Amino acid sequence: MDACTPTDDTKVTRTVRLQTYGGVGRPSIDQTMYRKVVVPLDGSELAQGVLPHVTEVIRDRGSQIYLLSVAPPVKGGTPTAADAHHPSSGAQGQRQPAEQGWMEYLQAMAERIEPTAAAVQVDVCFGRPADEILAFVDRVDADLIAMSTHGLSGIGRWVFGSVAARVLRGATCPVLLVWPNQAQRRIAYQNILVPLDGSTLAEQVLPYVKALIRPNHTRVFLIRVLKTGVRERAMALLTSYPPGLQLATTVLHHAEMQLQHYLRSVAAVLREQGAVVHTVVRRGSPADEILAYADEVGADLIGMTTHGLSGTSRWVYGNVAGRVLQGTHTPVLLVRPTSE
Fold this sequence. Notes:
This protein is of the alpha/beta class. It has two domains: 164 residues, 3-Layer(aba) Sandwich (Rossmann fold), CATH 3.40.50; 145 residues, Rossmann fold, CATH 3.40.50. Strands 1-4-3-2-5-6-11-10-7-8-9 form an eleven-stranded mixed beta sheet, with helices on both faces. Helix 12 links the parallel strand 10 and strand 11. The two termini are 37 Å apart. 39% of the residues are buried.
């Protein structure tokens, strides 16, 4: 049997049995989104800062929550079939104290989130954190991974070399990333910022945003950033004399009008869900303008896809999503789109 396989109380797993809390049916806003949410926790206050955000996402949805901890592998390697029949022997016996401690911790965390979930399951895996998290997500067919960008260390740039970065690179479902300084804030996704670039790839975040809309309480801010396609020196030269200035102004104005028309069409769909929607077209560097606008509107959440028009494969490094992640402390919902 695979490690950390979700199962019932009658089966032996590599780690420990799952335990379920709650189970009471609750009204559902959208049964197709955020049905199964995996929340990795490492025992730190920093990692636990994600829990209020999970509560906000799943409220009134009847969601299944999986609280998961990954412990370092103990000496002795993978348990054998004999270990399963004789739990006190070999590696399995060495795991039991660690499993018990982690399970008690996860049960305490489950009590925090149980009132808003249909059920909460807890599990402990042994191995490399990112690998175990991704494997577990695939096994339970999760709709969302919700995690803090920092854990026990609480230092360093998470994009490079950390568990969160490796999970982001390997996850096929959406990932909600929360910065530790968000832990003490009152959590309510009232202002959601959605960057779009006109591509169907970027638009694939919209169903996930629609699922978070609470009628008459949610404001959605749609932003499209216009890149002139002309380097600064060339633009300065072009606009240094009246004919060039008039030409550049006319072209940019026409482009902005087209982009506004596109954003208004998207806004109409979101308004049908009960959201108040604002649209804006900005000029400049996409990541810089997104970050600036997020500050201006007091965004509680940024929802965006990992790819846009370019559809490049190395999304974590060097593209718009990566730069937004590095420059913000606002929670970010990242969706990896399917092919256009």
